[in-house]
Amino acid sequence: MSTKYKTSNPEGIYFLSMATVEWVDVFTRREYCEIVVASLRFCIERKGLILHAWVIMPNHLHLIASAAENKELTSILRDFKKFTATQLLTAIQENPAESRKRWMQWIFQSNGARNSQNRHHQFWQQSNHPQELDSNYLMSQKLDYLHQNPVKTGLVEEPAHWRYSSATDYAGGKGLLSLVFLE
């Protein structure tokens, strides 16, 4: 059995990537990003998620995270993805300003129909591609990659200017979520 994409070390810190199916640009609207932020906050406060860094991009998000003692990161992420998928699908359906509604619903529904693990819709791609950050070099590399992502894609000029990121925290400001900084 492959261990390449598994959170096999319960005490490990992991770089995680979660993408929408077919890389649909859902997170171009603030209200959808706020659902993700609220869910991350809930996971931090109630489920034992330890968040070290994060960024929401238009069609994916990256986290550097670990789990509190006696908690499983895999379970936290499973619950996070299930909850946010339901909330986001509902928000898309109920958003009168969503001009891409029918197109997005068709993509989520057709992906769900092809996946035996879903009943109706699939919002997130299956894997989180966890990579354990077991050295200072890897931590620094992934932290830089995560924070530079909005800059490299042309969304902002400086990492700290991206609202949906921990770059503000690492630059000395106060961001949207509570973090445990990487050392």
Automatic annotation (TrEMBL):
Instruction: Using the record's annotation, list all stretches that form the Transposase IS200-like domain.
Output: 9-149
- Gene Ontology terms describing biological process: DNA transposition
> In this record, what's one Pfam family?
Y1_Tnp
Q: Which GO terms describe its molecular function?
A: sequence-specific DNA binding; transposase activity
InterPro entries for the chain: RAYT_transposase, Transposase_17, Transposase_17_sf
Q: Which domain of life is it from?
A: Bacteria
Record-linked SMART domains: Y1_Tnp (SM01321)
Q: Which PANTHER family match?
A: REP-ASSOCIATED TYROSINE TRANSPOSASE
The record, for NCBIfam families, names:
REP_Tyr_transpos
Name this polypeptide is given:
REP element-mobilizing transposase RayT
What is the species listed in this Swiss-Prot or TrEMBL entry?
Answer: Rufibacter quisquiliarum
